[in-house]
Every structure is written in C-alpha cells, then in structure tokens.
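Note to self: keep these together.
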Amino acid sequence: IDDNVWALFKDSKKRLWVGTYGGLNIITPDKKIISVQISPPPNQNNRTEDVLQIGPDQFLICGPNFGLCLIDEEKHTLEKIGVKEGMPTNNLRYLMQDSQGQIWITTNRSGIIRFDLKTRTIRYLNQASGLNSALISGVQEIEPGRFWISTYSGGIDNLDLAQNTVSTYTTKEGLSSDQVVGIYKDSKKRCWIYTEKGLNLVDSAHETNTIFSVSNGMPANGIYSLLEYNKRIYAGTQKGLTVLDETLSSKPGSGGSIWDTHTYGKSLGFSYLDFNGHSVAHSDGQIWWGIVPGVSILNESELKNQNALMPPRVNGLEILGKDQYFADPALAENTDTVWSENKDTFYLNGSFKELNSDKQKGIEWESLSPINMPVGLSLPHDQNNLRFHFANYLPQYAGDYQYQYILDGVDEKWSPVTDLPVSENYNNISPGHYTFRASVKRGNGNWSTPSEFHFRIRPPWWFSWWAELIYFLIFIGLLRLWVRQRSLRLLNENAWLEQKVAERTEALSQSLENLRQTQGQLIQAEKMASLGELTAGIAHEIQNPLNFVNNFSEVNTELLEDVNKALDENNTPEVKSILKDIEMNMGKITFHGKRADAIVKGMLLHSRASSGQKMLTDINMLTDEYLRLSYHGLRARDKSFNARYIMDFDENTGELMLVQQDIGRVLLNLFNNAFYSVTEKKKQLEKANQPGDIVNEMYEPMVSVSTKRKKDTVEIRIRDNGQGIPKKVIDKIYQPFFTTKPAGQGTGLGLSLSYDIITKEHNGKIDVTTKENEYTEFIIELPVQAA
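Structure:
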C-alpha cells in the first residue's frame, strides 16, 4: 500500500503482516498480498505501528491515528476501540500480551494502557500514577506481575503489581541513554534495551549490563528494531543491519560471553539503511526489515559468508633463533641484488650460497611458494627450535587485527589472542610430522579460516628405518638365543618335574589306598556299633518271649500231672478241660517262639552285608520293630536312660519295595540320635538346675514317629524334643566323618550313610527341620513302587 514500513509481524500461518503509512498488507507464503484499510480521522494517515496475534484467527493492530483495532478473520469483522470506547488516546504505539492474557498498550504521550479484552476494561498509568514519563515506547513482562516500561525521555520504569510500586532505571544506574526506543526479551530471559545512544544487554540472573555502541563495533548508536533468530540478535540501526553472534569466552575464569558483530551496509549491496520501529521479522530463513522506502529481504544463510577475512599467511620462519631466507640459487644467480625483508641489507650476485648455507646443515624442501616459503620442509633432529611469522593484509578495512595459532602435535589448544604476528618459540620439538595453523580476526568479527604450514622433523640416524631394522634383527637374534636357552632349561625342569610327579603319584596312590581301607574300617565300625546297639535291644526283646515259653511250659507240666490224676479218677470232663488249657498254652508257646525266631533272624539280617535286593516290606512294622530295638538297646546299656516314645502309623501305607537291612540301619541311626539328643538335654538341665526345680519337672524326653501315605510317596517323620542342631553346622550333618557328639561317641558316618541309602539306593528324599534347644525332625520320603 505504501513504501513507509513501520511494523512487521509473522503470524502462526507464516504470513507476514506489513504495517505502513497507508494501511496494512498481509503477505501469504505464496507471495499473495492482502490489503487491509482502516478509516482514520479526516486528514490523517493509516500508519500501523504494531500487530499482535491473540488467537488462531484474532489479531490486534494499533497506530497513532486510529487507535486499536480487533480483526477476527473467522467472523470477517474489524472492530475499532478508541477514545469513544474509553481509550485515553488514539495515538497508540506498541502491543504486548502478559502471562494473564491482559493486553498492554503503549501511547505516545498518555502513559500505558492495560486492556482486558474479555471484560473490555481499560486501565492506564501515567506520570500521575508514578511513571517517569508519559511518552511510552515499549513494555516487557520480566516475570509474572513485574514489568519493565521503556520511556523516550525517562529511561526504564520498573512496575511491580504485587507490591504496587514503580522504580526507575536510568543513566545513573548504567543505562546507555534515557531515550529508550524499546525492550526485547530473548530466549535466555535476558532483556535488551535499545536506545538512541547504544544497546544494553541486562542479564538479571548474572547481574550484568553489557553496552554495545560505536566504540565496540556497532555502526551507529541509534537502535530502532531488535529480533532474535537462530540464536543471533538482529539489530536495526541508522546505518544498516547489525548481527550479534554470541560465543563462550575462551579466557579461563571469565565466565562471560564474547559477542561478534557484523554490520551489513551499502558496501555489501544494501540500498537503504535506516530502520523503523518494530520492523524486523523472519520467514523461512529470510530476514525482513522495514525501511524508508519499502522492505529489504536478506537470506540468513548469506550472512555467514559476509565480511570473511582471508587467512593469514605464514611468511617467515626462525630456526634456532635465526631468521631463515629461502631462495632458489639457480634463479638467484641471474639476479644482481636482493634486498632483505627489512630493506636494510642487500645481497650481491653470487652471495646466495652463504644465504642458503643452512641447507647444507640438512634443511630440505621440495619447492618454494610465491612468497619464498618452503613447501614440504624437512628439518634434521637438531634443528628443532622454531618460531613462526605470519601476517594479514586487508587494506580495505580499518582497525587492528588479532591472531591465534596452534601447532598440532605440540599445543593442546589455541594460543591466547595476540596482536603480534609472531608465535612463541617452540623448543626441542620431537621428530614427526607437524602442522602450524594461524587465524585472524578484525574487531569483534569472526575468526578467519586457519592457514596451514606443514613441515617434518626427521629423526636422528639411530632412529632411522635402517637403524631400526638392525635393532630388530639384533633383537630377533637375542630372542632366539634366549628361547633356545630357556627351552633347554625347561626340558631339564620338565624331566625333574615328571620324576617328582611320579613319586608324588605313587605316594598319593598309597595314601588313597590307606584312606579307602580306613573308610572301610570306619564304616564297618559304624555297622558294628549299630549291631551292638541292636544286639542289646534284641537281648531285651528276646527275653520276653522266652519268659512266656518257659512259663507256659511249666504250666503245661503241672496241667499234665492234673490230667493223669483225672484219668485215674475217670473224670473225663476234667481231662477235656485241662487238655484245652494245655492246647491254648501250646499256642502261646508257639507264638512267642516264632517271635523270638523273627527277632533272631532280624538280628542276623542286620549283621550281614546288604545284598541290595529289594523286597516288599511293611514299613509300619519295620519302623515299630527298630524303634523298640533302639529304645531297649539304650536301656540295656544305660539303666538311667528313660524316655517316652509315641507311634502314629497310617494304616494305608501298604508295603514298599525296600532293602530291609539298609532302611533298618537308617531308622536305627535316626532313633539312636533322637534318644541321645533328649537324654543329653535332660542331663544338661539336671546339671544346670537343682533336683526338684520346676524346669526339670516340666521337661519330659520324648521321641515321636509317624508314617503317612501321600500320592506317590510314604512319609516317615522322626521328631524329638532334644537339643536341636546349631545353625552353623546344619549344612554339614550329611558330610562323612562330621559329628557333633564328643570324641569316642560317634564316627560321623551315620547320617552320611543314611543320606546315601535314602537318596541313591531308594530314590527318596531326606530333610531336616530344627530349632536349637527345642526340637529336631527328620523327614524321609520313599517312593511307592508296584510289587
């Protein structure tokens, strides 16, 4: 509509809103232009100062003549809000929406307006309310409820709504000028205050205030537009567009930032330089800014290539503190004279042999560059103290140059920035290939691409390839001699070791044989011990049936005498009665005789070596028999022994395929251990307490045994209320020769043999639960097998 552009804004649809003197243009991504006309008062223009998007299709625009306009694209409406609607003035300049959704509007001379769009409530602040000036140029919400208001004559007003206070920030507090054009908050929440006399960067978090002006790289002090894009700050000035690049400081401990400034003016093809307020925007990698006349557009990617400096040239070299002059003698012979670099010395024709005398010291190169610097420089190992000279010549730019350099392979990082075009001395450089790099910059500009100078330090002859080959051959020869000597020594040692191994093997075999014999003897001793215990029980058990046999035999003898008397008296009924008693007694004699016979056979069966032959066995009867034998055996050996035992047998257990001798040994061992445990506990209680104490009276030694038929197994539980097994030895009870009994009272093989018999011979399980000083319970599970 008009060439005087005062506002640029990019909306959520990537459209650019261009505010001009003659109205508003909307430029779509496909470059279509939509015009929006707002009817100002008579004899006044349509100048648009600012645009703000407040919804997907809702926008606010303002200007110095028509006040505030609300555009609703969805409803196709444009609503004016001005003095008639309660605004203090129609001369509006800048729009901002705070975190609460309130609209803040700056005015030219009437203070600042706070507008609630929902309730259409209008409030405003001016000098009477505490502001330093009524000419407001901008506003930013620093944090919720706290605002910075820029004025064009009184610096910055700090408005705190929570505290209801207003404070000022002017040149007295470090502001570059009280004529503030605007405030911009970047992505790091820092505030940029742009004025007529420079740009202030205020970082509240670090309490810093950085000023950018002509003195440190800005083209002019008047700043009128500001924009952050791709981590760069774009500042519109009186003399062109300035871009500020931020990098971290390379100085140790500085903790700050370094800012590089680049200004784009007419020398780079910019036709117009003067910027208007709020007139910088970006769109798809392009920077747009408003000028008089029109809009200028710059591709952001082109900024990286502007003002690029040529890399500095490495133009001199010192070796061992002496400047080196490199020249081609063949060319120099045809030259009358050659001046030195300082123009204070010249060399006559024929004197270049002396000039290039260093080449006779082993300094070599492949060729010379146009500035007589060697290409492919090769130095001997003793010419390894170097210093480099470099320079940069850009007469079209004014200002001083700064340099940085690094020697790859020696330096870990770039040198500090220096104004001198010469490096430090590099002393005693080790043999190898090296690259010296140097870079230059002007003012706050970017560093140039580094230049490179390549050279090599040759190793001494004792480090040369042929010397290393000789070293290698000598090493191989010595290594071969050492290997041969070592092989002979190893052969002798192997023969000696084989003899020792044979002797030790023979001794070990004898030890193993002795161990096997000892183990066999111990196992036999364990069997004989159990046999002795079994014999003692059998002696007591067999006494009962023998007593019955003797008693009934004597009674039968007396009854036979009575039969004879009755026969003499012909008392037939009496004879028959007596004969019936004799018959009954004979039955009892037979019963007890068979019982004694079974006991004797059981003893013989137990005393023999196990045949390993399984047979159907009544587990309840076997358990009952060995419980009684264990009990009576202990009673026979120790008359003071007394304990109660309880049997609880499941009648449904049936018969199992067992090796009777082995299972009998397991049961006898477990019963003996149980009776031993309750007996020892009784003795300990009697020793610790006086006779008659309530503890002794309450404790009754008891061993219980039960059987139970499960689905595929028969379970035997043997429980005693004795001493229990300590936790520290519970994992060792099945180990051979381990016992908790005193010396001479146990071999330590009972539980080991029992474990092997149950788990290996019968595919069963044996487990134990115990609590020290309370109880021990062994649980045996035997599989049920068909007959």
